Amino acid sequence: MEETIQKLAILYADVSGSTKIYEKYGDTIARRDIKKCIDMIVDIITQHDGKLIKTIGDGHVFVY
Length: 64
Known about the structure:
This protein is an alpha+beta fold. The chain has one domain (10-63). The protein is built from two helices and three strands; from the N terminus they run βααββ. A three-stranded antiparallel beta sheet has the order 1-3-2, covered by helices on one side. The longest helix has 21 residues, at 27-47. The two termini are 26 Å apart. The model has no long low-confidence stretch (mean pLDDT 87).
């Protein structure tokens, strides 16, 4: 039986300094801006056939 090798990449993305953003701008603005950042990352990853597999606070794990 022939083996198949599949390459896989895992990306962990986290918003650096998010606690300070929440403290400085408040929950509403911080949540909105962090969501925009994460949404941009998700769009780019999905354009390249990647998938979001886990969310940990403002950190996200993707696989392609």
